[in-house]
Amino acid sequence: MVDASCPLPLPSGDVILLGHGSGGRLTAQLIDELFVPRFGDPELARLGDAAVLDLPDLSNLTNLTNLSNLTGEPEGPGRLAFTTDAFVVSPPRFPGADIGSLAVFGTVNDLAMVGARPLALTVAFVLEEGLAIAELTAIVDSMAAAARHAGTRIVAGDTKVVERGAADRIFVVTSGVGLVPAGRHLDPSRIEVGDAVVVSGPIGSHGVAVLSRRTGVAFDTDVVSDSAPLTDLVEAMVAAGEVHALRDATRGGVATVLNEMAAAASVRITVDERAFPMLDGVRSGCAVLGLDPLYVANEGVCIAVVAGADVDSVVSAARSAPCGGEATVVGVVEAGDAGVHLRTGLGATRPLLVLTGDQLPRIC
Amino acid sequence: MVDASCPLPLPSGDVILLGHGSGGRLTAQLIDELFVPRFGDPELARLGDAAVLDLPDLSNLTNLTNLSNLTGEPEGPGRLAFTTDAFVVSPPRFPGADIGSLAVFGTVNDLAMVGARPLALTVAFVLEEGLAIAELTAIVDSMAAAARHAGTRIVAGDTKVVERGAADRIFVVTSGVGLVPAGRHLDPSRIEVGDAVVVSGPIGSHGVAVLSRRTGVAFDTDVVSDSAPLTDLVEAMVAAGEVHALRDATRGGVATVLNEMAAAASVRITVDERAFPMLDGVRSGCAVLGLDPLYVANEGVCIAVVAGADVDSVVSAARSAPCGGEATVVGVVEAGDAGVHLRTGLGATRPLLVLTGDQLPRIC
Question: What residues are paired with A304 via a beta bridge?
């Protein structure tokens, strides 16, 4: 056993709760108190959707010395983006997508949020004994089609099987590498007072679609998941103007992502509740379920923070790109205490907080 | 949903069995019939421990076109290795290691087997509601220490939580990227008649250590897991002579790995049962459990196939490197039908086959 002998304090809490996986306050606490101090890596601590790594000069790469301390070296001509995501969505197949295509697009989107196009993906499966091979095959077919659609490839994988009752059908973990062009830096630390906040499309569809098929709460709706690759949308927006930061609004929804951005940049973000595009079926589904759509997961929607002077051209470019047809300005970045404020339909303004508990377990 | 409309035949079998995760014949069937034809990627089809990808010329990487078809392009000066592994070992802590350090070293070793040093790792956790935070913390401390020991970093992660009973405590998925220097090609297709087969250390320790603590079969032993990083050992061997192929002998043990190598190179490999180094505790543990140590998982042992003329210098270099102190020649590569033959302690020779069933579920 490796001797850790770590003097760090134990993180808060006695046991893992569902809320630790919700993307909200408990997730952030686990990351801040447990993972970041122990792994001690500056790129991890940045908490981006993907890590961005400098590459050494490959033309001199004839022998390999320690590659672990590349951070802080002069930036090379291109950088490597690297990300991973676990998917435990229940049920594994739902309107508009399934756990397989969701995993592929989720990883492609994490790369896109740092400005990278995918170079390749890997996939690891944890399967429950007794899973129908026909169900696994349908999910694998969906992953393969999703990879082709996103212009990438699946180059390595691993499969483990556990006894009946030791996992719930299928868990999928995808990882991805991509390349970030020279000079492109998308990071919440670049957000400035005066920037505009853009949402790329209608919110809440993924969460409502999954819940509509979940045992115990199933209901009729024509809402389908928005799961889709955002690479082309990002390329269109970046080409049209100065984009400072991107985040895809998955677990925790747009409210959580906006809070993460405001905290990272130490700025006040004010958004207008009525500005967010939303399908009628999402509005009614959320009413039935008692959910706030600002906290519902999306899988093909991002928040872009854009230089104020460029926002018209960026929104216009987004509207001509895949998944961006309803891109809309929803808010502004202001000076003030770090946090997010919501202008409500009645004209009042209130804080838009990070959830402590768990609105939607196993939504992705 | 992505329309797969895939004309491929369904793979064999109705449901997933534990044997599909064993690394033996059922695992190979799943890979050959389900994953490889559907994902349709030449690098995946090579079935190496890690994929090896050419990188485009980064100095021209100012705009990003489709990066998905780099295979077959002229090889760049250095290449990127990329791998993923899921860990579901039960119990998650056992003599000599735990699921955390096992995951880090396992991924580092998959990179080492294609000649790469690790550049960075990611980790994804699937946690069961109710897992003690102290247990998770101990595992994370162990991962952090393992990453430092292996000279690498953990740069990104993801955590999902599922309800009590929907997973067994903790599953860990690590992915890794590394760099392969120009001119280095380790691949079973390079194996030639006349090559020598080397095992890097004593076999079977990991599997015996895990089983010694498993509910239902626990027994007293002083055997500890051999889990360790093999990067420095590989660098020492490669520097000392012509190494054609490497494989770490994890699930399915040395017998399975030798069969994979023989099949990939279409050669006959003959090994001497008495030549494999093994601790007395492994010998007696396997006798108690009714296991053949040639099929028991290792997590810090590899098989190297080496040019016959260089074998003495390669073994000598291995013996001076970490984890290589008992490196030994165990066999030769011969012409003949593809397969592995075992010279037994009594002087007879018999085929050493791939197991159909499952000797050791959830061993890694």
Answer: A198, A246
pLDDT in the model for residue A74: 44
Cis before B91 (ω within 30):
yes
Query: Helices H, strands E: what count in chain A?
Result: 10, 14
Tell me the C-alpha distance between B256 and B268, whole Å: 14
Separation in Å, CA A61 to CA A64, A79, A180, B205: 7, 16, 20, 36
Residue B126 has pLDDT above 90, yes or no: yes
Chain A residues with beta carbon closer than 8 angstroms to that of B362: 160, 162-163
Q: How far apart are CA A339 and CA A353, in angstroms?
A: 8
Verify whether the Cβ–Cβ distance A21 to B162 is below 8 Å.
yes
Is residue B126 located within the same domain as residue B237? no
Do B238 and B339 belong to one domain?
yes
At A77 the pLDDT is 63
**Amino acid A205: pLDDT:** 98
For the segment B285-319, what is each residue's pLDDT rounded down to a tens digit?
Answer: 999 999 999 999 999 999 999 999 999 999 999 99
Would you call A15 and B167 a contact, using CB atoms and an 8 Å cutoff? Answer: no
Residue A356 domain-assigned (yes or no): no
Residue B358 has pLDDT above 70, yes or no: no
Which residues are registered as beta bridge partners of A328? A199
Q: Distance (Å, rounded) from C-alpha B323 to C-alpha B112?
A: 13
Give CA angle at A311 (A306, A315), nearest 5°: 105
Best of B12, B47, B108, B155 to substitute, by most chain A Cβ atoms within 10 angstroms, is B155
CA distance A138 to A160: 18
pLDDT per residue over B247-283, tens digit each? 999 999 999 999 999 999 999 999 999 999 999 999 9
Which of B325, B281, B335 lies closest to B301, judged by CA? B325
Which residues does chain B have within 8 Å of residue A21's beta carbon, measured at their own beta carbons? 127, 159-162
* Closest listed residue to residue A25, CA positions, set A362, A364, A361, A357: A357
Q: Which of A280, A268, A320, A325 is nearest to A301 (CA)?
A: A325
Same domain, A279 and A148: no
Sort out which chain B residues have CB atoms less than 8 A from A146's CB and list them.
2
Region for residue B336 given its phi and psi (left: phi exceeds 0; alpha: psi -120 to 50; beta: otherwise) = left
- Which of A180, A215, A241 delimits the end of a domain? A180
Note whether B113 and B241 are same-domain residues.
Answer: no
| pLDDT tens-place string over residues A153-163 | 999 999 999 99
Domain count within chain A: 2
Q: Residue B36 corresponds to which tokens in the numbers above? A: 């490889």
Q: Which of B65, B66, B173, B359 to mutate to test the interface with A (most CBs of A within 10 A)?
A: B173
Helix (H) or strand (E) holding B170: strand B170-180
**Residue B179 phi/psi, 5° resolution?**
-115, 135
Q: Which residues pair with B157 in a beta bridge?
A: B123
Residue B139 forms part of a structural domain: yes
Are residues A158 and A71 in contact, defined by beta-carbon separation less than 8 angstroms?
A: no
Note down the domain range covering B279: 188-351
pTM over 0.90: yes
Whole-number mean pLDDT of chain B?
A: 92
| Same-domain status, A231 and A322 | yes
Q: Is A146 exposed, middle or buried (0-12, 13-18, 19+ CB in 10 A)?
A: buried
